[in-house]
Amino acid sequence: MTLLNFAYKNISRDFKTYFFHFISCTFSVFVFFIFTNLTFHPALKVVDKDSTIGVILNLGLLISLLFSFVFILYSVNNFLKLRSRQFAILNIIGSTNKQFKRIIFYENGLISLGALICGTILGIVFSKFFLMIAETIIGGLNLYFYLPIKAMIFTLLLMGGLFLFISIIAPIVLRKKKIISLLKKEDEAESSYLPIVGLGVAIIIPILIYNRHSESLLMYPLYLLAFILVSYFIFNLLFVVYMFVMKHTKLKFKGAGLIKVSNFNYHIHTNLKTMAITMMLFTITLTSLIYIIGAPRNVEKTTQKILPYSLMYSALNKNIDDKEKANKIKETLKDYKGFKFLEVNYLKFSTPNRDVLISNSMYNKIAKYLKRKPVALKDHDYYMIGTDGKNVPKMGELMGKDLERHQINNNKGATSETIALSGYFTSVTVISDTKYERLSPQLENNRFFAYQFDDWKHYNDEPLAKQLNIDQDNDSLSSAYWYYTTEKLQRNIIAYVGSVLCISFLIGIASLTYSRLYSSAETEIKKYETMIRLGISKQTIKHALSSTIIWIFLLPFIVALMITWGIVIYLDQYTVISYYKIAMYCSLTYLLIEVGLYYLIKYKYQRKIFEVLYQQK
């Protein structure tokens, strides 16, 4: 019998042992195929791969591939641990290290090949369904069903390469020395990760503190690593507090308390590691999903904050008769419902930056035009206007000195709301009409023209710009329509790609948790067999098993949800639109999904344990 035949018979005779690993691999191929199917769709042929949309699609593929790598590698690790006794016996009866590695390679290769075929077939079967979802979410695209030859080839090549790489490194997971120790693993205490974690924290935290103002990309992996290590410490501390409370309140000796504590403590370091990784994945997934789902909902409000007008025309070249073109635009649009026109005059300083002044009366006209609150300024007062729609502006040092020379030094407040296209000005300062009149002869007088009408979301200004020879070099016509449509398409694609990824991650996290429980099921069964002989009831064992799942699955989720809300509250002061309402809806959705996954894992795990325990009895 060849080693390949031996590996095949191992899988066919004991497929239940390989089933979970096979499902994990198939799911990874399926998710990756869904993205490649969209990326290579004929409707997206016009998309430049270097454009924002192209980058989003490619980034989705990359994240999906990385997710598959981590997910499958973790699955392989647990799968090999589950079969450690079989490998140990093979090693004892005389299999060489080379034969041992080839058996593992062949087994992983056969499972990977089956997963590639099944995952791709499932992807083709459900491709129309996911394209319909994508078409509904993205909008504006006809994502019809097509035979995804390129997607199939791309999936087979990339995922096949990934599986081949994992099959090659899989034997490294179980070394010869490790196999013999795993043969009697239930008799050995787990090694503590605390010394390694403590050393890692002692090294990384000072580096992060010293480089806290650094914008280097190399800092982000360190932040992530520090987050995981600190999480490990936090969960370790929580368990210590839990043990203290159980001991000193004598709750440990009530009901299944003693079993619950010892059950978690038996695999404490593996459990803490699982909790830290799970919490990190939950935090990333929950936070990402809030902003991914919220992005398309806020396009209209964001557009109005970035460009508060339907159209904005300005001449950059002084030789252009901007007044004439502005009037032609006005004549073209005057019959549109809700049409309004405004000429905005301002003074510009003779500096490379576009620092400008507008009069109090001019600002109040704009405020009335945009339905904002007016301001009343005296000669020494000034009022700051936002330039990017996000941040409340502050007076620059040089600008402050210029105004100080003209005795304008009393700050009457500021607003983040813009009066022009975001980034069009460097700073905008409102001053009294009297001061404006005095400074007018000393500074450059300039203007732009604003147009407002109701149906701006469907107005394509391209024919108008072409008719008036507006080339965006000598003069410009900025349109809220183009920002809205482009941004909406980009955000909808992000919403689709991100939602599929986040849901995949949530399923993956639940799968990783179950994989961790499943890998230790054999040890748990032996332990509970002894307990049953001592008279422990089935209900008590149920409570003990549920307690472990709560520790390693629900608790990380609750902590992750708290961290997510902290991130949302912090970032809300920097975002154009508030995400509180969306975060609330997402949190409730997360809770429902999490409770559902908890009961599913609980049911599957308890059934796995009880099938053996009470079948034998």
UniProtKB/TrEMBL annotation:
Keyword Transmembrane listed: yes
Chain coiled-coil ranges: none
Localization terms from the record: Cell membrane
Positions of transmembrane segments: 18-40, 52-76, 110-131, 151-173, 193-210, 222-245, 275-294, 493-514, 548-570, 582-601
InterPro entries: ABC-4_Integral_Memb_Prot, ABC3_permease_C, ABC_permease_BceB-typ
Alphabetical UniProt keywords: Cell membrane, Membrane, Transmembrane, Transmembrane helix, Transport
Domain ABC3 transporter permease C-terminal: 60-178
Gene Ontology cellular-component annotations: plasma membrane
Main location: membrane
Pfam families per UniProt: FtsX
Membrane-protein topology: Multi-pass membrane protein
Example of a GO biological process term: transmembrane transport
Keyword Cell membrane: yes
Protein family: Belongs to the ABC-4 integral membrane protein family.
Name this protein carries in UniProt: ABC transporter permease
